[in-house]
């Protein structure tokens, strides 16, 4: 097994960060990723997906970004009966409105970090997996397929498309930024839009109307209480100690048009955490009942992406293998955890494929200003993945 070159790894992460890839516009960065793979001596294939067919599929995971095409990249090495998937997304959220200390897409390598949007979430993890595959390629006894995918941030359409194309895997590893923990459980998430009608009137005689904003206040309180109930008795052991395993958050509220007019319409958008073991239908029905009880006139629509909960048993041999390989690199076995955010892990477990997430630090800056990832973390992740790959397969 070849040694992982941390400096070369950092340069390649920087090269991907320097190609902006907001969700919906990922082809250029996938092309760059393919070039990096070929420089490492790996075979890469860029392919387009049939977007219309995916949208018509009953399992379509939803979308939020505007999109006219969907591309993916696969890098394949090795051979044999056992097949392993390394999966990571290369789409990123926008830099936001707050000022950064440097260009969000600089890809600067400084003070032991690669800086820029997507460095931690999760171009760094994708490149670490790529370098791991190159390091292990000569010692593989299994077939490894690295999937660099689009559209994770708004629902996971890229991984859904990749698995529709090829889902014959015995295990999957996703190098999301877990700070070296092995995450084998994830909560789910649904996005929704609500509309509350009111009755317009002049502000001077506001009692003649019915304020949509006032009605929303009751709904907001009811949603806060629903969140408390969701998190009051957490059944999943790996999420039990999490401060808020199943968040229910309202991210946008739009109501009223003029200070002297009683508002006759309010729209709000939110995200609902879905409990491990709970179906989408159950989660939707419970939230709709809460809103209906608080405001019978309100209407809820389920819009955008959806992430089902997902879980691989913590004592599964693949979880054990990843932990053992990480312990050799890190000097101690990493913890097993559950996470409260949606990821593409569930798309594998839903198909019966054991999957875990294991990656660098940096989650605290993902989706935030001045995102960065430690170079040493990336190298450790690559060395761990390389060890995992060489211990799988026949023989």
Task: Spell out the blueprint of helices and strands.
Elements: H1 6-17, H2 27-39, E1 43-48, H3 51-56, E2 71-78, E3 83-89, E4 109-110, E5 113-115, H4 119-136, E6 143-149, H5 157-165, E7 171-174, E8 182-186, E9 188-197, H6 212-230, E10 248-255, E11 265-274, H7 280-294, E12 299-307, E13 310-311, H8 317-330, E14 336-339, H9 345-349, E15 355-357, E16 372-374, H10 375-390
Parallel strand pairs: 3-6, 3-7, 7-15, 8-14
Antiparallel strand pairs: 1-2, 2-6, 4-5, 5-16, 8-13, 9-11, 9-12, 10-11
- In CATH terms, what is the architecture of the largest domain? 3-Layer(aba) Sandwich
- Spatial arrangement of strands, main beta sheet: 1-2-6-3-7-15
Radius of gyration from the alpha-carbon trace, in angstroms: 23 Å
Q: So what's the CATH class of the largest domain? A: Alpha Beta
- At CATH level 3, the topology of the largest domain is Aminopeptidase
Structure description:
The protein is of the alpha/beta class and 395 residues long. It folds into 2 domains: 6-186 and 309-390, Zn peptidases (Aminopeptidase); 188-307, 2-Layer Sandwich (Alpha-Beta Plaits), CATH 3.30.70.360. The chain is built from 10 helices and 16 strands. Strands 1-2-6-3-7-15 form a 6-stranded mixed beta sheet, with helices on both faces. A hairpin with a 2-residue loop joins strand 4 and strand 5. Helix 1 (6-17) crosses helix 4 (119-136) and helix 6 (212-230) crosses helix 7. The protein is elongated, with a radius of gyration of 23 Å.
